[in-house]
Amino acid sequence: MKILRCVIVSILIPSCAISFSDIKHSLGNGYYYLGEGETQRYVYRSFDERNPSIDEISIWPTVLSYDYDENFVIIRQSPNEKAIKQYLIYFKDKSNEQADSIMKTDTFFINMFASDTCYWIINKKDKVIKGPYNFSSFQKGKSIIGVPNKLHLRK
Length: 155
Fold this sequence. Notes:
The protein has 155 residues and is of the alpha+beta class. It has helices at 2-21, 81-91, 96-105, 107-113, 135-145, and strands spanning 23-28, 31-35, 41-45, 56-59, 63-68, 72-77, 118-123, 128-133.
């Protein structure tokens, strides 16, 4: 009996610890940051702010840093093929082969995987996502779109 209790406790404690380490932060206008460990960090949009669930992934893993105000979210991301494939399979009900095909043929993913670090701008009011940018295009895009200089990304 003691052994059975030890086995059950050893299974339950790590599974509870995972939920304690999750970080969820509202970015406003239905956008949320969710960090579920080292590589599972992304920005998503929810259509129900009272009970936010992932309705639409806006910025795929791995989000390295972000900043936001009432109008914009700026994001630095390192595209994580393994994590993105897992999300396509889980959230989009794709098979392993379908997920591979999407990541290799969809221009959105091709452009995102073309760089080790991508930058994004979300206009929250218009619900428009611009990117992926390289750093110099990101700086130019911020200026054109009118993102305030007070928004900064951690290195």
